Amino acid sequence: MTRIALSLALTICLLVAVAATLTYDDVAEASRYLRTYGFLENEKNHQQSSSLDNATTLSVALSLFQEYYGLPGNCVLTVETICVMRRPRCCDADIHAYSPLTRKWPRTHLTWNFKLANRDTLRTTQSAFALWFEQSSLTLSRDPLRPDILISYQSGTHAYENSDNGGSCPSPFTGPGSVVAHAFFPTGEPNQVIEVYVDESRGTSC
């Protein structure tokens, strides 16, 4: 048996042991998801690892995902787990590699605005912020003129709304799919506007 075939067999045995209704395509999809959103390191970091090591690493990553989202599964890929992976979500990773860079706001009161949003969208956005901020020491208010957090609808390849941030955003939208929005971390700069983009084709259903 070749190394690739052995790796596939071990992976399927480890991850689909109880979920007989799932296929290898589901396992491959789960592996891509775990790698994309930070639960699993990039393949290049494991090129010299054995097939068993790779399969075990994937199993550990799946366990971490299930713990993160409060799912049962015991390292086994279940229908419930794959359904959670297919939900609409932000494109930013859940688990981030350690970085010495400061990623915090330089002040405790922040302002926000949702560009060209209607009243219902503004009300929904305010409610969403409230859920998070009630667990934080930060405070928040809306400021249409000088927001710290600027939200906007975008589609395809798009530019930053605030020209001080640069030219084109490095994360274009690719149309209907699981990713409905993306954002950027604060950098600690006192006057930087942090932008949040919502896919225009999905915005009305968010």
UniProtKB/TrEMBL annotation:
Record keywords: Hydrolase, Metal-binding, Metalloprotease, Protease, Signal, Zinc
Secretion signal span: 1-20
GO biological process terms held by the UniProt record: collagen catabolic process; extracellular matrix organization; proteolysis
Record bears the keyword Cell membrane: no
Keyword Metal-binding: yes
Superkingdom, taxonomy of origin: Eukaryota
CC annotations in GO: extracellular matrix
InterPro entries reported in the protein's UniProt record: MetalloPept_cat_dom_sf (IPR024079), Pept_M10_metallopeptidase (IPR001818), PGBD-like_sf (IPR036365)
Pfam families from the UniProt entry: Peptidase_M10 (PF00413)
Peptidase M10 metallopeptidase domain span: 104-189
GO molecular function annotations of the record: metalloendopeptidase activity; zinc ion binding
UniProt xrefs under PANTHER family: MATRIX METALLOPROTEINASE, MATRIX METALLOPROTEINASE-21
Name under which the protein is recorded: Matrix metalloproteinase-24
